[in-house]
Design a protein that fits this description.
Helices cover 48% and strands 16% of the residues. By secondary structure, the chain is of the alpha+beta class. The chain has a single domain, classed as Bit1 (3-Layer(aba) Sandwich), CATH 3.40.1490.10. The strands form two sheets. Strands 1-4 form a two-stranded antiparallel sheet. A two-stranded antiparallel sheet has the order 2-3. The two termini are 13 Å apart.
């Protein structure tokens, strides 16, 4: 996918995860705003890897409420119904690292 499409998908994931955290853990949003609103973009090797990470998150009582998996509708570049991005947090870095350890920065 193009850089613009990847950016749009990351924005969808980030915004939706933010809204989930705001509903369930509003204090985390306050902390996030006070500490510079950090964001980290990581990459996976495949759609299957993305879904595996999401499954681990979804099976965790806390993590299930701080993540959002984006599924593209296929109206522009992609064929459609492809999982493209996963937003997690804002939440405690060490907690998120339990699910993202070993992933590389997106380039």
């Amino acid at each position: 996918m193009s850089a613009g499409k990847a950016a749009a998908q990351a924005c969808h994931a980030s915004l939706m995860a933010f809204l989930l955290v705001a509903q369930k853990h509003p204090q985390k949003i306050e902390e996030w705003f006070k500490t510079g609103q950090g964001k980290i973009i990581l990459q996976v090797n495949s759609e299957d890897e993305l879904k595996q990470i999401y499954t681990r998150l979804a099976n965790d009582d806390t993590a299930a409420n701080i993540c959002y998996l984006v599924r593209d509708s296929g109206l522009t570049e992609l064929k459609g119904m492809e999982y493209t991005a996963l937003g997690i947090g804002p939440f405690d870095k060490d907690y998120i690292d339990n699910f993202t350890k070993g992933l590389r920065l997106y380039k």
